[in-house]
Amino acid sequence: MSGTDLDLATDRLSPEFGSEVFGLDLGNATDDELAAVRRTLVDRKVLFFRDQQLDEDGQVSLGRRIGELTASHPVVGGVDEAHPEIYALDSADDGFADVWHTDVTFMRRPPLGSILRAVTLPPSGGDTSWADTQLAYRSLSAPVRQLADQLTAVHDGNREFGYYLAQRRGGRGSVWDGEVVTRLDPVEHPVVRVHPETGLRGLFVNPGFTSHIVGVSDAESRGILDLLYAHLTKPEHIVRHRWRAGDVVMWDNRSTAHYANRDYGSAHRVMHRITLRGDEPYGP
């Protein structure tokens, strides 16, 4: 059976996006199965896999079979020397993601997608939610969509990672898009991103990294962004995942934003993430 006609066994978590995939061992998947995963990822935007047996080597190998891996992060080094592609989100080292964001939008070429693996989980809590940015765009009123289509926003990684780059990495980050990251210059992206594979439009702003809208007053920028953020994170635009050991989640970074609950107190939570190399966003 070729990768063009293989269907995965899935359960849709919402009508528009998010699916749990059944009966697939990611560590031993065939090329056809991974081709089907890649297609389904674009369609459903976030995929959940239970009871996986991946370790660090297996996670990196999986990522390489799906796309081209980036460094772990433009600023933060890999989990160890043998795995420079793995970004460790460790609560013992301030590895939290409790603000809505889309990964690494403060670079000119943000990742295509991410693959996240549960390593150490708290007894309860630490759920992660994803928002469908394309569904959020479509459900805006027509006048607001027309406004958003015309706008450009600045994304700035300095607020979150500037101190880390300067103090903990000595001003020398990872190699990203062929160059060593030595500073985080703000970049501009369209407020509405056209998905390069489907042509669908989605909101491409996030509270984690978007600093302001270009060409409007500060007050107007805050008002527009607050409106878009409130709309993006409406419950009907969100799926929420309760983690358990062996879970792996993949998401399309071009059509989602996500948020990890920080509700587990002093309990330990460690997640390992890899990201797939993406392209430069473009608007309508």
What would a concise description of this structure say?
The chain has 284 residues and is of the alpha+beta class.
Low-confidence stretches: none
Helix content: 10-25%
Could you give the order of the helices and strands? EEHEHEEEHHEHEEEEEEHEEEE
Count the strands? 17
CATH level-two architecture: 4-Layer Sandwich
Largest sheet: 7 strands, mixed
How much strand content do the residues show? 25-35%
Number of distinct helices: 6
CATH topology, which one? Double-stranded beta-helix
The level 1 CATH classification is Alpha Beta
Structural class determined from secondary elements: alpha+beta
Rg calc: 18 Å
Task: Describe this protein with a few key phrases.
284 residues; three-stranded antiparallel sheet; seven-stranded mixed sheet; single chain; TauD-like_sf; alpha+beta; Taurine dioxygenase; 25% strand; AtsK-like; iron; TauD/TfdA-like; Double-stranded beta-helix
Q: Can you give a write-up of this model?
A:
This is Taurine dioxygenase. It comes from Asanoa ishikariensis. Pfam families: TauD. Keywords: Dioxygenase, Iron, Metal-binding, Oxidoreductase. With 284 residues, this protein is an alpha+beta fold. The chain has a single domain (9-276), classed as 4-Layer Sandwich (Double-stranded beta-helix), CATH 3.60.130. Helices cover 23% and strands 25% of the residues. The chain contains 6 helices and 17 strands. The chain has a 7-stranded mixed sheet with strand order 1-2-3-15-5-17-4, with helices on one face. A 3-stranded antiparallel sheet has the order 14-6-16.
